[in-house]
Amino acid sequence: MRTLAETQFSILELVPVRDDKSIHFALQHALELAQTAEKLGYSRMWLAEHHNMDGIASSATAVLLGYLLANTQTIKVGSGGIMLPNHAPLVVAEQFGTLATLYPDRIELGLGRAPGTDQHTMRALRRGQRETEDQFPRDVVEILQYFNDPMPQQRIIATPGQSTHVPVWLLGSSLFSAQLAAKLGLPYSFASHFAPRMLGQAIQLYRENFEPSEYLDRPYVSMGVPTCVADSDEEAAFLATSAYQRVLSLIRGHTLKLKAPIDSMDGLWSSAEKMSVDNFFAMAQVGSKETVKAGLETLLAKYDVDEFIFTCDIYDTEKRLNNFNLLMQIKNSV
């Protein structure tokens, strides 16, 4: 079994919008986080595509990735992920092919098959009813071909895109993408930062069915881990209430803007709501460096993943940056 020192540490950024700050502030903070992650030695920083959510500012994912790439030097950035049913594969290939041409060897494309939004917004995205069980696999294969060298008589060439060989990942919170990633020989990232229930089963399915490919010779798995690391367990528990309030608001259909931490969640939620939030954060690591180190080692012993990709919904921006600093201290202290 690998150690924390041997495990890759990465960041999934949802560009949270605070209830007292502007969207511009959130976008600037995303860049500050990318620059901090680069200095700290994180492997990659991904952005997630969501729509019609007032507390998440990463909807124009490819545009924001260009901003991060232009203002960093070495860190890999990518999508975690682009929700492929919302887009034409050719357009995705052209967008990420353009980024790969401008910033060689730094862009990655993570693909998901969920819409990342609600039914009304799906229609606003012009997402038709073409989605079938085999549409997503066909779209993934189409994108892979746009990034590869062109085949003889290939009629549509992604320009830019063709021959850029952008690394493609599949993302998922169920078994479907695990099976597809195994079949295509692609790296796989499980969305256990919000839907951890099928994590173990998906990883096992992926590993047992993995077929080596031109992209990867052995399975590669990352798992999402919500984090709230602070100088003490007590401070971390206090800071984590911002994340709990956010998911409670999601359950209730209220604003997703990040709220300041509070002393206690008692009285704010029902027992059923508390259970739902607890299930959402089943993989969360909240506490001091010592506490979180022990928790990450437990996750590693159970799932033996190649990479942790961390999320964080701390309200105070400096404490949020410090969360990722403390995580890297945990990795480097092993």
Question: Which keywords apply here?
Answer:
334 residues; alpha/beta; TIM Barrel; eight-stranded parallel beta barrel; 9 strands
Question: What do these coordinates show?
Answer:
- This protein is of the alpha/beta class and 334 residues long.
- An eight-stranded parallel beta barrel has the order 1-2-3-4-5-6-7-9, surrounded by seven helices.
- The protein is built from twelve helices and nine strands.
- The chain has a single domain, classed as Alpha-Beta Barrel (TIM Barrel), CATH 3.20.20.30.
- It has helices at 23-40, 61-70, 89-102, 119-124, 135-147, 176-184, 199-209, 233-239, 241-252, 271-280, 289-303, 317-332, and strands at 8-13, 44-47, 76-83, 107-112, 168-172, 188-190, 221-229, 285-287, 307-311.
- Helix 3 (89-102) links the parallel strand 3 and strand 4 (107-112).
- To bacterial alkanal monooxygenase alpha and beta chains.
CATH superfamily: Luciferase-like domain
**Secondary structure: number of strands:** 9
Distance between the termini: 14 Å
> What's the tally of helices?
12
Structural class: alpha/beta
Number of discrete domains: 1
Mean residue pLDDT: 95
Strand content: 5-15%
Dominant shape: globular
> Level of helix content?
40-55%
In spatial order, strands of the major sheet run 1-2-3-4-5-6-7-9
Using the coordinates above, name the CATH class. Answer: Alpha Beta
Q: What's the quick description here?
A:
By secondary structure, the protein is α/β, with parallel strands linked by helices.
